[in-house]
Amino acid sequence: MDVLIIHFLNALLYASVLFLIAGGLSLIYGVMRIVNLAHGNIYAVGAYTTAWAVGRMLGSAPAITLYALLPVGAVAAAALGAVLEPTLLRPLYKRAEEYQLLITFGLLLILEDLLRLIWGPYPLSASSLYEALGSLSIGESIYPTYNLAVIVVGGIAAAALWGFVYKTKFGVILRATSQNMRMASALGVNVNRVYVQAFTLGCFMAGLGGAIIVPQQGAVLGMGVDALVLAFVVVVIGGLGSLEGALLGALMVGVVREFGIAFFPEIELAVLYLMASIVLLIRPAGLLGRA
Amino acid sequence: MAEVSRRDFLNALGVTVGAAAGASAGILPGPSKAEAAEPPKGKIPDTPYKIGHMTFFTGPAAVLGEPSYKGHILAAEEINAQGGLLGKRKIETLKADEAAGTDANVKELRRMKLSEKIDLFTGVISSGNTPALGPVGEELKLLTIFVDGCTDFLWDKAVPNPHYIFRITNMQSADGVTCAVATAMTWPQVRKIAHIHPDYSYGRNARDHFTVAIEKLIPGTKIVYEGWPKLGTTDFTSHITAVLAAKPDLLVSSVWGGDYIAMYKQALRYDLFKKMKFSSTIAFGVAPHAIGKDHPEGVIAGVHSNYYFNYPPQGRWPANDTFVKKYYDRWKEYPNFQSEGSYVTLQLLKQVIERANRLVGGWPDDEAIIALLEGALTVGPAGYLQMRADNHQGYKDAVTGFSMNSPDYPFQILDPKKIITIPIRNITAPPGWGDAHGKEPTATYTWIEKTWPKVA
């Protein structure tokens, strides 16, 4: 029984981080119609920045204050987004979509090289934060307390995002711009400002995902590309541009991966793509996507 | 087959633990000091000797590529400080990023030979790349010394009769077998075994060779779980939970690099190491300084069966003492097996070129270099390295050991008193055994399956 509970918690852990990444990707697409291929390495920037900050302060500050450094990665990713959108993406909105794909893919590669250049090829660790919380007992088993913290943050982020998009004036403008950019513009919405805000928010979510998971997993080169692929699996399942879809997709991926690894470990590599293919066959726009 | 006890069989394999292995350290072959000081014969051109070094400069495998390149550069700088090869030809290194993918790597190899006119091709980490690059090296008639890319498949199938290509590090099958031998002598009581391996050729190879060897050494073991995370995975919570649920006596893993660091740190929080024994083929092989003091002590922490920087121990093997010191002074970190491999590659090349020069005078052509590389014996930091004449595979004792904390290092190390070494010829298929047959993975696999006794 306790093993089953732990499997569910593991699935939630995986889904939490995946939702933050895929949610950001989906938000940006929903508002701006840009498939941001650089998104994976925005997540990596969050992870590396937090690991670096924690590593620098380690030993000189009490453990409890180190937790305050967690959001540093998210802020760095958001700042990066706030710079990138007006400088690199804005000039391309009037061109064909292929240009956006090319430029965001190029950005993905450049960011990967920058991470390598700044932090070197060896993994960065922030595991003192993961270890300091210890483990708690679930029946006869134990479970890392930090994982629960990640699940809670993921849940809060999802709730906050929902409130933000559906309960605030900014959310109304965001949704209006997403549904009809020209109309919103004609009604006096400053579209450029909405775009930079949406892009920054999307990057903040990815950075937050990287920042909260880095104590558990460490920061390694290539993590961004992996995350990007997984985020695409999630949005293919949930529907690109839909936040609810990203949540549903992340939960499905988390649960299927978890029980795949537990009961059919041979097909771990294939199982997520299998699920995405089935969804594509049945509902090409994704489960909650707008056709 | 007659019954053999485990102890007798391990003795027959020549397995040694710790200090005993260094006993023969006094006998150093190779050129005597007087011979080495002799000036080169004949006229030597002073054009640079161009070397293409391909390794991972980007992506997760840069954790192996960086040390490989650093070992190469250290050796090249040393040689160039003496005026270059034969005192005249300075080494000029061209680097290529192996992360470009196999097809691009093959093109780059051709380009380096045809446009850049490289004299030697070296490096290469991935087992997926050597079988593609090897035949091209042969076709281009390009002297090639792979540092790694250690798949058995290269010599079993891709290039069964090599002429121009050689390889330095131990063959991949040695990893699984070494790990099984170390496990059987340390924990002969284990019966239920769980595995976690990255899902690509290295992980599959490690699992297969561990399994075929352990079945001979501890008959009657059972696999209770096998996890196959993708290479590059850093979330192992699911695999750890599944392993714990299967209640094994032993977990075997070939997860490496940043993946391994994430895995062991997560496993700690589930008390995994308190509930079972742990054997790895490569835990301490990749980035020694990245292993924290929190790593469990006393587990089998393999080093790709090649090299760990504190063995042979300080003061017993001058080649290692000077290498570790020079490497640390140059790069401010400790070398791994790739550093050692690419360093010994250039040292071996230098010795062979000098020997060839004494024989034929002038700059030796590739045929003379190849003739002397075949069967060459050299003293590397890791110990003796013999280049097998038949399949051009570098052979050195396979190495593994146990993790321990030492006040002398800010990271966890292998216990220098308990290093396990095994003569490589006793755990790999001998010359003439033939290639892999049918569905079996490698020649060594069938050789172990057919010729090793099951111990009683």
Can you tell me about this structure?
- The complex is a heterodimer of chains A (291) and B (456).
- By secondary structure, chain A is mainly α.
- Chain A has a domain at 23-221.
- Chain A is built from 13 helices and two strands; from the N terminus they run ααααααββααααααα.
- Chain A has a two-stranded antiparallel ribbon.
- In chain A, strand 1 (135-138) and strand 2 (141-144) form a beta hairpin.
- In chain A, helix 1 (2-32) crosses helix 11 (223-238).
- Chain A is globular and about 60 Å long.
- Chain B has 456 residues and is of the alpha/beta class.
- Chain B has two domains: 6-17 and 173-310 and 400-451, Rossmann fold; 46-171 and 314-395, Response regulator (Rossmann fold, 3-Layer(aba) Sandwich), CATH 3.40.50.
- Chain B is 38% helix and 15% strand.
- The termini of chain B are close together.
- Chain A binds chain B through residues 3, 6-7, 10-11, 13-14, 112-113, 116, 120-123, 125, 127, 130-131, 134-135, 141-144, 146-147, 213, 216-223, 226, 257-258, 261-262, 265-266, 268-269, and chain B through 57-60, 62-63, 65-66, 199, 225-230, 232-235, 237-239, 241-242, 244-245, 257-259, 261-262, 265-266, 268-271, 287, 289-290, 292, 294.
What percentage of amino acids of chain B are in beta strands? 5-15%
Structural class of chain A: mainly alpha
**What is the CATH first-level class name of the largest domain in chain B?**
Alpha Beta
Tell me the major beta sheet of chain A.
2 strands, antiparallel
Question: What is the strand and helix layout of this fold?
Answer:
The complex is a heterodimer of chains A (291) and B (456).
Chain A: H1 2-32, H2 39-57, H3 63-66, H4 71-89, H5 97-119, H6 127-132, E1 135-138, E2 141-144, H7 145-167, H8 169-179, H9 181-186, H10 191-217, H11 223-238, H12 243-263, H13 268-282
Antiparallel strand pairs in A: 1-2
Helix pairs in contact in A: 1-7, 1-10, 1-11, 1-12, 2-4, 2-5, 2-10, 2-11, 4-10, 7-8, 7-10, 11-12, 11-13, 12-13
Chain B: H1 6-13, E1 16-17, H2 33-37, E2 49-55, H3 62-81, E3 91-97, H4 102-114, E4 120-123, H5 130-139, E5 144-146, H6 153-158, E6 165-167, H7 173-186, E7 192-196, H8 201-217, E8 222-227, H9 237-246, E9 250-253, H10 257-269, H11 272-275, E10 277-280, E11 300-301, H12 318-331, H13 337-360, H14 366-373, E12 377-380, E13 383-387, E14 394-395, E15 398-400, E16 403-404, E17 413-414, E18 420-422, H15 443-451
Parallel strand pairs in B: 2-3, 2-4, 4-5, 5-6, 7-8, 7-9, 9-10, 10-11
Antiparallel strand pairs in B: 1-18, 12-13, 13-14, 15-18, 16-17
